[in-house]
Amino acid sequence: MEALLCRKLGDPTIPVDDSENSPLTLSKAHPIPRLNSPTAVRVRVKATSLNFANYLQILGKYQEKPPLPFIPGSDYSGTVESVGSNVTKFRIGDPVCSFAGLGSFAQFIVADETELIRVPDGCDMIAVGALPVAYGTSHVALLHRAQLRAGQVLLVLGAAGGVGVSAVQIGKICGAIVIAVARGEEKVKFLKSLGVDHVVDSSTGNITDSIKGFLKARKLKGVDVLYDPVGGKLTKESMKLLNWGANILIIGFASGEIPVVPANIALVKNWTVHGLYWGSYKIHRPAVLEDSLKELLSWVARGLITINISHTFSPSEANLAFAALKDRKAIGKVMIAFDDHKAASSKL
Q: Entry's PROSITE patterns (predicted)?
């Protein structure tokens, strides 16, 4: 089978197999993984999404460091290709999606049947491959942790990225007043098309002044939930906008700078700071993830969520996929698709 192997740590934007400097190599005859238990299921991967964690892992800067060589990749969609003798939930040909710590950048992956979710009929399978990590992160963060309610003000930083777009859409489904921060005219236009109540272009003006003006015009006291996958100075500025009793969701640090939340102000203003490492729920609270993904898939099937695929690449173009992620050119998700990647549309 085809599989992208990380043979050394380094910059994944270097062309695949281009030189000894490239961390990624495309194996054309990698062994197909075998069923490793009676309840194991082998899935033929249709599409797998790129997440910032994948980029950091290949660089060697992620908190989990697997031994070399390894197949990167986390969330994916595909069809059941083979099942173990005790599998009862799935049959060959069933459409499924899931996520793994490693291994989805390959044509086949093996998972226990308890880790797979059946995809409802009519869902686009390439789009569904982008669902688990980005939309799962935002769903657990906003509904399970912050318990976002209708009428509350949600501020989303990095709102045009994979998790940012998912937070915006889920916020609107919840009935929140959504404020989005993104960089560039194209991203601002896209976010407005999602029905965002107020969009701030971080490249053209003062973010806090713009948001304060919007809040004043709407007679709102401040931000109730801060969704932050960016970190750095933007976090510091955003804290000036938070209400008493606000929830701060720490999702990631795309800026490369880890912010400091002043404990004294958190105390006085009764803020709740949530650190969210979504992947660890698979170990500690797997039922939460299962329920979350089932609800998200039902929203996709009903048309409440539209997953925007910004770029789709073949495995041999993985460096271009990571470049789109690194350079923040993407609006929504970046995908690697197997077999018929050229059929993928830019927006699904």
A: QOR_ZETA_CRYSTAL
Residues of the chain with pLDDT under 70: 18, 340-348
Among 185, 124, 133, 129, which residue's Cα sits nearest to residue 160?
Answer: 185
Closest CA to 310 of 271, 281, 282, 336: 336
> Which residues are CB-neighbours of 184 under 8 A, at least 6 positions away?
160, 201, 203
Which residues share a beta bridge with 184? none
pTM exceeds 0.85 for this model: yes
Position 127 scores a pLDDT of: 93
d(CA 203, CA 193): 19
Q: In whole angstroms, give the CA distance from residue 208 to residue 46.
A: 42
- Look at the alpha carbons of 45, 89, 114, 296 in this order and tell me if their dihedral is positive or negative: positive
Separation in Å, CA 217 to CA 80, 149, 212, 220, 257: 53, 21, 9, 8, 32
pLDDT, residue 18, reads 65
Q: What is the pLDDT of residue 340?
A: 54
